[in-house]
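This part of the workshop introduces the protein records we will be handling. An example says more than a description, so a record of this kind follows:
>
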Amino acid sequence: MKRSWLFLAFGTAFLVLKLVNLAPQVSDENLYFYAAQLVANGVVPYRDFFFQHPPTQILLLAFLIKLFGFRLFAFKLVHVLVTLGSAFLLYRLTGSKRGAMGLFASLFFLSSSVIFTATDFAVGVHEATFFLILSWYLLGKRPKLAGLALFLGLTIRMYILPAGLGLVAYAFWRGNRRGTTHFLLYSLVPFALFNLVLLGLFGEGFLTPVWRYHFLKPTVEIRQQAFTDFFRNEKFLLLFSAASAFILLRRAVAGRWIFPPAPARLSGDVHLGLAAAFGLAAQFIFLSRLPTVFLIYFVTVIPFLAVLASLTLAVFLPARSRKVAYLFVVLVFGLNALSYEKNMAGKYAFGALDDIVADVRTVTGARETIFGAYLVTPAVALYSDRSITDHEVDTNTQRFMTGLLSAETSTRLATGSGVFLQSVVFDEGTGAVRNVDPFVDPGILVESCRPYRMYPVDQDFGFNRLVLWKCS
Protein backbone atom coordinates (compact mmCIF):
# COMPACT_ATOMS: atom_id res chain seq x y z
CA MET A 1 0.00 0.00 0.00
CA LYS A 2 2.81 2.40 0.86
CA ARG A 3 4.40 1.74 -2.52
CA SER A 4 1.12 2.61 -4.26
CA TRP A 5 1.01 5.93 -2.47
CA LEU A 6 4.64 6.62 -3.37
CA PHE A 7 3.91 5.87 -7.02
CA LEU A 8 0.90 8.20 -6.91
CA ALA A 9 2.95 10.95 -5.26
CA PHE A 10 5.77 10.85 -7.79
CA GLY A 11 3.36 10.48 -10.70
CA THR A 12 1.57 13.62 -9.50
CA ALA A 13 4.90 15.46 -9.14
CA PHE A 14 5.79 14.48 -12.70
CA LEU A 15 2.41 15.69 -14.00
CA VAL A 16 2.64 19.03 -12.17
CA LEU A 17 6.19 19.59 -13.42
CA LYS A 18 5.10 19.04 -17.02
CA LEU A 19 1.98 21.19 -16.75
CA VAL A 20 3.74 24.22 -15.28
CA ASN A 21 6.13 24.15 -18.23
CA LEU A 22 3.47 23.73 -20.90
CA ALA A 23 4.03 26.17 -23.77
CA PRO A 24 4.20 26.29 -27.57
CA GLN A 25 7.46 24.73 -28.75
CA VAL A 26 9.80 25.05 -31.71
CA SER A 27 9.27 21.42 -32.62
CA ASP A 28 7.99 18.79 -35.03
CA GLU A 29 4.86 18.69 -32.89
CA ASN A 30 3.57 21.77 -34.72
CA LEU A 31 3.51 19.77 -37.93
CA TYR A 32 1.31 17.10 -36.29
CA PHE A 33 -0.99 19.69 -34.73
CA TYR A 34 -1.53 21.39 -38.08
CA ALA A 35 -1.96 18.05 -39.87
CA ALA A 36 -4.67 17.16 -37.33
CA GLN A 37 -6.35 20.51 -38.02
CA LEU A 38 -6.37 19.65 -41.72
CA VAL A 39 -7.92 16.24 -41.04
CA ALA A 40 -10.56 17.80 -38.78
CA ASN A 41 -11.44 20.10 -41.70
CA GLY A 42 -11.85 17.17 -44.09
CA VAL A 43 -8.42 17.23 -45.75
CA VAL A 44 -7.09 13.72 -46.35
CA PRO A 45 -3.48 12.72 -45.53
CA TYR A 46 -1.44 11.03 -48.29
CA ARG A 47 -3.92 12.23 -50.90
CA ASP A 48 -3.96 15.95 -50.07
CA PHE A 49 -0.73 16.43 -48.15
CA PHE A 50 2.60 14.72 -47.42
CA PHE A 51 2.63 12.84 -44.12
CA GLN A 52 5.46 10.47 -43.21
CA HIS A 53 3.82 8.32 -40.51
CA PRO A 54 0.77 6.07 -40.14
CA PRO A 55 -2.31 8.18 -39.45
CA THR A 56 -3.50 7.17 -35.96
CA GLN A 57 -1.83 10.00 -34.04
CA ILE A 58 -3.27 12.80 -36.16
CA LEU A 59 -6.67 11.07 -36.25
CA LEU A 60 -6.71 11.14 -32.44
CA LEU A 61 -5.71 14.81 -32.39
CA ALA A 62 -8.32 15.59 -35.06
CA PHE A 63 -10.94 13.98 -32.82
CA LEU A 64 -9.86 16.27 -29.97
CA ILE A 65 -10.16 19.27 -32.28
CA LYS A 66 -13.68 18.23 -33.16
CA LEU A 67 -14.52 18.07 -29.46
CA PHE A 68 -12.69 21.11 -28.11
CA GLY A 69 -11.29 23.05 -31.05
CA PHE A 70 -7.55 23.64 -31.19
CA ARG A 71 -6.45 23.63 -27.53
CA LEU A 72 -2.74 23.34 -26.85
CA PHE A 73 -3.44 22.18 -23.30
CA ALA A 74 -5.51 19.21 -24.51
CA PHE A 75 -2.93 18.26 -27.13
CA LYS A 76 -0.03 18.39 -24.69
CA LEU A 77 -1.92 16.63 -21.92
CA VAL A 78 -2.47 13.51 -24.06
CA HIS A 79 1.13 12.35 -24.24
CA VAL A 80 1.89 13.32 -20.62
CA LEU A 81 -1.00 11.18 -19.38
CA VAL A 82 0.03 8.39 -21.73
CA THR A 83 3.54 8.53 -20.24
CA LEU A 84 2.07 8.19 -16.75
CA GLY A 85 0.06 5.27 -18.10
CA SER A 86 3.27 3.66 -19.29
CA ALA A 87 4.79 4.11 -15.83
CA PHE A 88 1.72 2.50 -14.28
CA LEU A 89 1.97 -0.49 -16.66
CA LEU A 90 5.61 -0.94 -15.62
CA TYR A 91 4.54 -0.70 -11.98
CA ARG A 92 1.99 -3.48 -12.55
CA LEU A 93 4.27 -5.55 -14.77
CA THR A 94 7.09 -5.62 -12.23
CA GLY A 95 5.03 -5.19 -9.05
CA SER A 96 2.62 -7.63 -7.42
CA LYS A 97 4.69 -10.07 -5.35
CA ARG A 98 8.03 -8.62 -6.46
CA GLY A 99 8.24 -6.12 -3.62
CA ALA A 100 9.85 -2.80 -4.48
CA MET A 101 10.65 -3.73 -8.07
CA GLY A 102 7.46 -2.18 -9.47
CA LEU A 103 8.03 1.13 -7.74
CA PHE A 104 11.69 1.23 -8.78
CA ALA A 105 10.88 0.44 -12.42
CA SER A 106 8.18 3.12 -12.67
CA LEU A 107 10.36 5.76 -10.99
CA PHE A 108 13.39 4.89 -13.11
CA PHE A 109 11.15 5.31 -16.17
CA LEU A 110 9.64 8.65 -15.11
CA SER A 111 12.97 10.05 -13.89
CA SER A 112 14.81 9.22 -17.11
CA SER A 113 16.39 12.30 -18.66
CA VAL A 114 15.00 11.20 -22.03
CA ILE A 115 11.45 10.95 -20.64
CA PHE A 116 11.65 14.29 -18.84
CA THR A 117 12.82 16.01 -22.01
CA ALA A 118 10.81 14.14 -24.63
CA THR A 119 7.49 14.68 -22.87
CA ASP A 120 7.78 18.36 -23.76
CA PHE A 121 6.93 17.34 -27.32
CA ALA A 122 3.82 15.67 -28.73
CA VAL A 123 5.55 13.62 -31.41
CA GLY A 124 3.79 10.25 -31.17
CA VAL A 125 6.57 8.20 -29.57
CA HIS A 126 4.92 8.27 -26.14
CA GLU A 127 1.65 6.77 -27.37
CA ALA A 128 3.46 4.11 -29.41
CA THR A 129 5.64 3.19 -26.42
CA PHE A 130 2.55 2.89 -24.21
CA PHE A 131 1.09 0.25 -26.53
CA LEU A 132 4.48 -1.49 -26.70
CA ILE A 133 4.53 -1.82 -22.88
CA LEU A 134 0.86 -2.85 -22.88
CA SER A 135 1.65 -5.65 -25.33
CA TRP A 136 4.47 -6.79 -23.01
CA TYR A 137 2.14 -6.66 -20.01
CA LEU A 138 -0.47 -8.81 -21.80
CA LEU A 139 1.86 -11.19 -23.64
CA GLY A 140 2.11 -13.88 -20.97
CA LYS A 141 -1.62 -14.35 -20.31
CA ARG A 142 -3.49 -12.70 -23.21
CA PRO A 143 -1.29 -13.03 -26.31
CA LYS A 144 -4.09 -12.14 -28.73
CA LEU A 145 -4.80 -8.88 -26.92
CA ALA A 146 -1.04 -8.32 -26.67
CA GLY A 147 -0.79 -8.63 -30.44
CA LEU A 148 -3.61 -6.13 -30.95
CA ALA A 149 -1.90 -3.71 -28.56
CA LEU A 150 1.31 -3.87 -30.58
CA PHE A 151 -0.70 -3.41 -33.77
CA LEU A 152 -2.22 -0.19 -32.39
CA GLY A 153 1.24 1.04 -31.42
CA LEU A 154 2.54 0.33 -34.93
CA THR A 155 -0.24 2.45 -36.44
CA ILE A 156 1.23 5.39 -34.50
CA ARG A 157 4.97 4.81 -34.97
CA MET A 158 6.42 1.80 -36.75
CA TYR A 159 9.82 1.97 -35.08
CA ILE A 160 8.56 0.08 -32.00
CA LEU A 161 8.41 -3.13 -34.08
CA PRO A 162 11.95 -4.41 -33.30
CA ALA A 163 11.29 -4.19 -29.54
CA GLY A 164 8.00 -6.04 -29.97
CA LEU A 165 9.73 -8.77 -31.95
CA GLY A 166 12.42 -8.98 -29.26
CA LEU A 167 9.76 -9.63 -26.62
CA VAL A 168 8.06 -12.30 -28.70
CA ALA A 169 11.43 -13.89 -29.46
CA TYR A 170 11.98 -14.33 -25.73
CA ALA A 171 8.49 -15.78 -25.29
CA PHE A 172 9.32 -18.26 -28.08
CA TRP A 173 12.68 -19.09 -26.46
CA ARG A 174 10.84 -19.66 -23.20
CA GLY A 175 8.74 -22.29 -24.96
CA ASN A 176 5.46 -20.40 -25.42
CA ARG A 177 4.94 -21.46 -29.06
CA ARG A 178 1.16 -21.14 -29.08
CA GLY A 179 1.22 -17.71 -27.44
CA THR A 180 3.84 -16.32 -29.81
CA THR A 181 1.88 -17.59 -32.81
CA HIS A 182 -1.25 -15.82 -31.60
CA PHE A 183 0.74 -12.67 -30.84
CA LEU A 184 2.21 -12.52 -34.33
CA LEU A 185 -1.13 -13.30 -36.00
CA TYR A 186 -2.93 -10.57 -34.09
CA SER A 187 -0.22 -7.93 -34.54
CA LEU A 188 1.53 -8.37 -37.88
CA VAL A 189 -1.44 -9.63 -39.93
CA PRO A 190 -3.69 -6.65 -39.02
CA PHE A 191 -0.74 -4.31 -39.57
CA ALA A 192 -0.09 -5.77 -43.02
CA LEU A 193 -3.79 -5.45 -43.92
CA PHE A 194 -3.82 -1.90 -42.54
CA ASN A 195 -0.95 -0.94 -44.83
CA LEU A 196 -2.45 -2.73 -47.84
CA VAL A 197 -5.73 -0.85 -47.41
CA LEU A 198 -3.92 2.51 -47.23
CA LEU A 199 -1.76 1.53 -50.19
CA GLY A 200 -4.87 0.63 -52.17
CA LEU A 201 -6.52 3.93 -51.27
CA PHE A 202 -3.58 6.28 -51.78
CA GLY A 203 -0.95 4.37 -53.76
CA GLU A 204 2.34 6.20 -54.10
CA GLY A 205 1.03 9.01 -51.88
CA PHE A 206 1.16 6.55 -48.99
CA LEU A 207 4.02 4.23 -50.04
CA THR A 208 6.66 6.90 -50.57
CA PRO A 209 6.28 9.08 -47.44
CA VAL A 210 5.49 6.27 -44.97
CA TRP A 211 7.90 3.62 -46.25
CA ARG A 212 10.36 4.65 -48.98
CA TYR A 213 11.16 8.03 -47.46
CA HIS A 214 12.73 6.55 -44.31
CA PHE A 215 15.11 4.42 -46.37
CA LEU A 216 16.07 7.39 -48.54
CA LYS A 217 17.02 9.63 -45.62
CA PRO A 218 20.76 10.30 -45.51
CA THR A 219 22.84 10.13 -42.38
CA VAL A 220 23.02 13.50 -40.62
CA GLU A 221 25.15 14.79 -37.76
CA ILE A 222 22.27 14.56 -35.30
CA ARG A 223 22.65 10.76 -35.32
CA GLN A 224 25.96 10.71 -33.47
CA GLN A 225 24.89 13.55 -31.19
CA ALA A 226 21.76 11.64 -30.16
CA PHE A 227 23.76 8.59 -29.05
CA THR A 228 26.29 10.79 -27.26
CA ASP A 229 23.57 12.67 -25.38
CA PHE A 230 21.80 9.45 -24.48
CA PHE A 231 24.86 7.78 -22.97
CA ARG A 232 25.89 10.95 -21.13
CA ASN A 233 22.48 11.71 -19.62
CA GLU A 234 21.36 8.20 -18.63
CA LYS A 235 24.43 7.14 -16.63
CA PHE A 236 22.56 5.74 -13.59
CA LEU A 237 20.00 3.88 -15.66
CA LEU A 238 22.64 2.38 -17.92
CA LEU A 239 24.92 1.47 -14.99
CA PHE A 240 22.29 -0.50 -13.08
CA SER A 241 20.90 -2.04 -16.28
CA ALA A 242 24.38 -3.22 -17.22
CA ALA A 243 24.83 -4.72 -13.74
CA SER A 244 21.56 -6.61 -14.13
CA ALA A 245 22.50 -7.84 -17.62
CA PHE A 246 25.89 -9.04 -16.32
CA ILE A 247 24.32 -10.98 -13.45
CA LEU A 248 21.75 -12.55 -15.77
CA LEU A 249 24.45 -13.56 -18.24
CA ARG A 250 26.62 -15.05 -15.50
CA ARG A 251 23.69 -17.08 -14.19
CA ALA A 252 22.84 -18.21 -17.71
CA VAL A 253 26.35 -19.55 -18.25
CA ALA A 254 26.54 -21.14 -14.79
CA GLY A 255 23.11 -22.74 -15.12
CA ARG A 256 23.65 -23.82 -18.73
CA TRP A 257 20.36 -22.36 -19.92
CA ILE A 258 21.79 -20.50 -22.89
CA PHE A 259 19.89 -22.63 -25.40
CA PRO A 260 16.09 -22.90 -25.63
CA PRO A 261 13.80 -23.62 -24.07
CA ALA A 262 14.45 -21.53 -20.96
CA PRO A 263 14.21 -23.73 -17.86
CA ALA A 264 10.84 -23.55 -16.13
CA ARG A 265 12.59 -23.36 -12.77
CA LEU A 266 13.79 -19.78 -13.40
CA SER A 267 12.08 -17.23 -11.18
CA GLY A 268 9.59 -14.72 -12.56
CA ASP A 269 12.07 -11.92 -11.87
CA VAL A 270 14.70 -13.57 -14.02
CA HIS A 271 12.22 -14.20 -16.84
CA LEU A 272 11.17 -10.55 -16.70
CA GLY A 273 14.77 -9.40 -16.83
CA LEU A 274 15.56 -11.68 -19.74
CA ALA A 275 12.49 -10.45 -21.66
CA ALA A 276 13.66 -6.87 -21.05
CA ALA A 277 17.13 -7.78 -22.30
CA PHE A 278 15.70 -9.30 -25.49
CA GLY A 279 13.51 -6.27 -26.17
CA LEU A 280 16.33 -3.85 -25.38
CA ALA A 281 18.84 -5.65 -27.60
CA ALA A 282 16.46 -5.79 -30.57
CA GLN A 283 15.48 -2.12 -30.29
CA PHE A 284 19.01 -0.87 -29.70
CA ILE A 285 20.41 -2.79 -32.66
CA PHE A 286 17.64 -1.27 -34.78
CA LEU A 287 18.41 2.27 -33.61
CA SER A 288 22.13 1.76 -34.21
CA ARG A 289 21.40 0.84 -37.83
CA LEU A 290 19.10 3.76 -38.58
CA PRO A 291 20.67 6.42 -40.80
CA THR A 292 19.05 9.22 -38.80
CA VAL A 293 18.43 8.99 -35.05
CA PHE A 294 16.88 11.60 -32.78
CA LEU A 295 16.93 11.57 -28.99
CA ILE A 296 13.17 10.99 -28.78
CA TYR A 297 13.66 7.55 -30.38
CA PHE A 298 15.35 6.40 -27.17
CA VAL A 299 12.00 6.66 -25.37
CA THR A 300 11.40 3.18 -26.83
CA VAL A 301 14.32 1.63 -24.90
CA ILE A 302 13.73 3.32 -21.53
CA PRO A 303 11.08 0.79 -20.32
CA PHE A 304 13.50 -2.10 -20.76
CA LEU A 305 16.33 -0.25 -19.07
CA ALA A 306 14.00 0.69 -16.20
CA VAL A 307 13.02 -2.95 -15.64
CA LEU A 308 16.63 -4.15 -15.73
CA ALA A 309 17.78 -1.39 -13.38
CA SER A 310 14.96 -2.15 -10.92
CA LEU A 311 15.95 -5.82 -11.00
CA THR A 312 19.42 -4.89 -9.79
CA LEU A 313 18.17 -2.86 -6.82
CA ALA A 314 15.10 -4.87 -5.80
CA VAL A 315 16.28 -8.45 -6.40
CA PHE A 316 20.03 -8.76 -6.91
CA LEU A 317 21.04 -6.25 -4.26
CA PRO A 318 21.57 -7.83 -0.81
CA ALA A 319 18.43 -7.55 1.34
CA ARG A 320 20.19 -5.46 3.99
CA SER A 321 20.90 -2.74 1.41
CA ARG A 322 17.44 -2.42 -0.11
CA LYS A 323 16.25 0.33 2.21
CA VAL A 324 19.10 2.44 0.86
CA ALA A 325 17.88 1.59 -2.66
CA TYR A 326 14.58 3.37 -1.94
CA LEU A 327 16.45 6.52 -1.00
CA PHE A 328 18.68 6.24 -4.06
CA VAL A 329 15.80 5.91 -6.54
CA VAL A 330 13.95 8.85 -4.97
CA LEU A 331 17.18 10.86 -5.10
CA VAL A 332 17.66 10.06 -8.81
CA PHE A 333 14.11 11.23 -9.52
CA GLY A 334 14.67 14.45 -7.59
CA LEU A 335 18.04 15.21 -9.19
CA ASN A 336 16.79 14.56 -12.71
CA ALA A 337 13.67 16.64 -12.06
CA LEU A 338 15.83 19.55 -10.87
CA SER A 339 18.18 19.13 -13.82
CA TYR A 340 15.22 19.19 -16.22
CA GLU A 341 13.74 22.29 -14.59
CA LYS A 342 17.08 24.09 -14.63
CA ASN A 343 18.45 23.08 -18.03
CA MET A 344 15.67 21.82 -20.28
CA ALA A 345 12.28 23.20 -19.24
CA GLY A 346 11.43 26.02 -21.61
CA LYS A 347 14.52 25.44 -23.73
CA TYR A 348 12.48 24.95 -26.89
CA ALA A 349 9.74 27.46 -26.08
CA PHE A 350 8.59 29.47 -29.10
CA GLY A 351 9.24 32.91 -27.60
CA ALA A 352 8.67 34.87 -30.81
CA LEU A 353 5.31 33.26 -31.57
CA ASP A 354 3.07 36.11 -30.37
CA ASP A 355 5.03 38.74 -32.31
CA ILE A 356 5.06 36.70 -35.52
CA VAL A 357 1.34 35.92 -35.24
CA ALA A 358 0.53 39.60 -34.74
CA ASP A 359 2.60 40.57 -37.80
CA VAL A 360 1.10 37.83 -39.97
CA ARG A 361 -2.39 38.99 -39.08
CA THR A 362 -1.40 42.56 -39.89
CA VAL A 363 0.13 41.98 -43.32
CA THR A 364 -2.11 39.18 -44.67
CA GLY A 365 -5.79 38.90 -45.41
CA ALA A 366 -7.89 36.10 -43.99
CA ARG A 367 -7.78 34.22 -47.30
CA GLU A 368 -4.06 34.62 -47.91
CA THR A 369 -1.84 31.62 -47.18
CA ILE A 370 1.55 31.32 -45.53
CA PHE A 371 4.55 29.06 -46.13
CA GLY A 372 7.84 28.38 -44.38
CA ALA A 373 10.03 26.42 -41.97
CA TYR A 374 8.18 23.37 -40.65
CA LEU A 375 9.33 23.73 -37.02
CA VAL A 376 7.53 27.06 -36.61
CA THR A 377 5.19 27.84 -39.54
CA PRO A 378 2.44 25.35 -38.59
CA ALA A 379 2.19 26.95 -35.11
CA VAL A 380 2.02 30.43 -36.67
CA ALA A 381 -0.69 29.21 -39.05
CA LEU A 382 -2.78 27.74 -36.22
CA TYR A 383 -2.53 30.77 -33.94
CA SER A 384 -3.03 33.34 -36.71
CA ASP A 385 -5.90 31.40 -38.30
CA ARG A 386 -4.15 31.21 -41.66
CA SER A 387 -3.69 28.24 -44.00
CA ILE A 388 -0.40 26.85 -45.28
CA THR A 389 -0.02 27.07 -49.04
CA ASP A 390 -1.07 23.86 -50.84
CA HIS A 391 -1.08 22.10 -47.42
CA GLU A 392 2.73 21.81 -47.81
CA VAL A 393 3.33 21.70 -44.09
CA ASP A 394 6.38 19.37 -43.98
CA THR A 395 9.36 21.33 -45.33
CA ASN A 396 11.91 19.24 -43.45
CA THR A 397 15.41 19.55 -44.93
CA GLN A 398 15.47 15.79 -45.42
CA ARG A 399 12.69 16.08 -47.98
CA PHE A 400 14.98 18.28 -50.07
CA MET A 401 17.92 15.93 -49.55
CA THR A 402 15.87 12.91 -50.67
CA GLY A 403 14.47 14.73 -53.70
CA LEU A 404 10.86 14.61 -52.48
CA LEU A 405 10.61 18.40 -52.34
CA SER A 406 12.49 20.53 -54.85
CA ALA A 407 13.87 24.04 -54.50
CA GLU A 408 11.75 25.04 -57.51
CA THR A 409 8.56 23.90 -55.81
CA SER A 410 9.55 25.55 -52.54
CA THR A 411 10.33 28.81 -54.33
CA ARG A 412 6.98 28.74 -56.14
CA LEU A 413 5.11 28.12 -52.90
CA ALA A 414 7.03 30.83 -51.02
CA THR A 415 6.56 33.55 -53.62
CA GLY A 416 2.92 32.61 -54.14
CA SER A 417 2.07 32.98 -50.45
CA GLY A 418 1.01 36.03 -48.49
CA VAL A 419 4.09 35.65 -46.27
CA PHE A 420 7.09 33.35 -46.17
CA LEU A 421 8.72 32.47 -42.82
CA GLN A 422 12.34 31.34 -43.07
CA SER A 423 14.81 30.25 -40.40
CA VAL A 424 18.41 31.36 -40.93
CA VAL A 425 21.77 31.66 -39.25
CA PHE A 426 22.65 35.37 -39.28
CA ASP A 427 26.22 36.55 -38.73
CA GLU A 428 26.09 39.76 -36.68
CA GLY A 429 29.57 40.81 -37.75
CA THR A 430 29.35 40.39 -41.52
CA GLY A 431 25.60 40.39 -42.05
CA ALA A 432 25.94 37.11 -43.93
CA VAL A 433 23.03 34.68 -43.95
CA ARG A 434 23.49 30.90 -44.13
CA ASN A 435 21.67 27.64 -43.34
CA VAL A 436 18.39 28.97 -44.72
CA ASP A 437 15.40 26.69 -44.21
CA PRO A 438 13.43 25.95 -46.26
CA PHE A 439 15.71 26.55 -49.20
CA VAL A 440 14.40 28.74 -52.01
CA ASP A 441 16.03 30.47 -54.96
CA PRO A 442 17.35 33.70 -53.35
CA GLY A 443 17.23 35.68 -56.59
CA ILE A 444 13.59 34.91 -57.26
CA LEU A 445 12.73 35.45 -53.60
CA VAL A 446 14.23 38.97 -53.59
CA GLU A 447 12.43 39.82 -56.82
CA SER A 448 9.04 38.60 -55.58
CA CYS A 449 9.09 39.34 -51.84
CA ARG A 450 10.47 41.87 -49.41
CA PRO A 451 11.79 41.25 -45.89
CA TYR A 452 9.19 42.47 -43.40
CA ARG A 453 10.78 41.69 -40.05
CA MET A 454 13.57 39.64 -38.49
CA TYR A 455 13.01 38.01 -35.10
CA PRO A 456 15.90 37.09 -32.80
CA VAL A 457 16.02 33.51 -31.51
CA ASP A 458 17.83 33.06 -28.21
CA GLN A 459 17.89 29.28 -27.95
CA ASP A 460 20.09 26.99 -30.00
CA PHE A 461 17.77 25.46 -32.61
CA GLY A 462 20.37 25.39 -35.38
CA PHE A 463 19.26 28.90 -36.37
CA ASN A 464 19.37 32.26 -34.62
CA ARG A 465 16.87 34.32 -36.64
CA LEU A 466 13.43 33.95 -38.15
CA VAL A 467 12.81 36.13 -41.20
CA LEU A 468 9.29 37.06 -42.27
CA TRP A 469 9.00 37.90 -45.97
CA LYS A 470 5.97 39.74 -47.39
CA CYS A 471 5.17 38.28 -50.79
CA SER A 472 2.01 38.32 -52.89
